Amino acid sequence: MELADFLTKEQVVTDLKASDRWEAIEELIDLLVDKGRIKSEHREAIVSVVKNRETSMSTGIGFGIGIPHASTDLIDDVTGAFGRSKAGVNFDALDNQPVNLVMLFLVPQGQFQKHLHTLAKIAKVLHKKEFRKALEDAGATIVAYDPEGMEVAAPMMPSVTMASDAYEAADGADALVLVTEWDIFRALDLKRIAAAMAGKALIDL
């Protein structure tokens, strides 16, 4: 399961107002209610189950990332909401640093494997932020392309230019990094990619 399977542009908050993890949970759940992803009569019960999970151990996993989550029988499909905080949210994170990216997700009760897979996928995607930041700090300009998640990704990565396809992303690049496993990338014309690039570094993560 990819993030684009359950996260749309309307489920993204580009400027979270929350100052702590409890407010962040409520703000993102309110968004899901507003967008019809959660029934309004189920709001309090879902807030409670997410907060109970968060009480047992903070989901602030470090590097400015928080992933509050829970399973509930009040939804039929995986859903979630993403928030970006410019000021930082107090999440009692593992590294004691404020959280800037909060990805809340909910999984139907009893779907344990899907829960674990979704959590792992989110953690992997958000940790790529540190890789992007290191490149930006070194003066790099980043151009990205994803066949499914562009609309969702754009608000999360305001400093990244979005390309219309992989070949446009490669045009004039000093280095090209593959960070997903879409079949469309397996079928790339590597000679065309090499001809478009200024450099010859290809990194497959």
Describe the structure.
The chain is built from seven helices and ten strands. With 205 residues, the chain is of the alpha/beta class. Helix 1 packs antiparallel against helix 2. The model has no long low-confidence stretch (mean pLDDT 83).
Task: Write the SSE topology.
Elements: E1 12-13, H1 21-34, H2 43-56, E2 60-62, E3 65-66, E4 69-72, E5 79-89, E6 99-108, H3 112-137, E7 143-144, H4 150-156, E8 161-162, H5 166-170, E9 175-178, H6 183-186, H7 190-196, E10 201-204
Parallel strand pairs: 1-5, 3-6, 4-6, 7-8, 9-10
Antiparallel strand pairs: 2-3, 5-6
Shape: elongated
The number of helical runs is 7
Structural class: alpha/beta
What is the averaged pLDDT score? 83
Order of helices and strands: EHHEEEEEHEHEHEHHE
Helix content: 25-40%
Count the beta strands.
10
| Alpha-carbon distance between the two ends | 18 Å
The share of residues in extended strands comes to 15-25%
Please state the CA-atom Rg, rounded to the nearest Å: 18 Å
Q: Runs with pLDDT <50, length 5+?
A: none
Major β-sheet, in short? 6 strands, mixed
Entry keywords:
205 residues, alpha/beta, 6-stranded mixed sheet, 7 helices, 10 strands, 38% helix
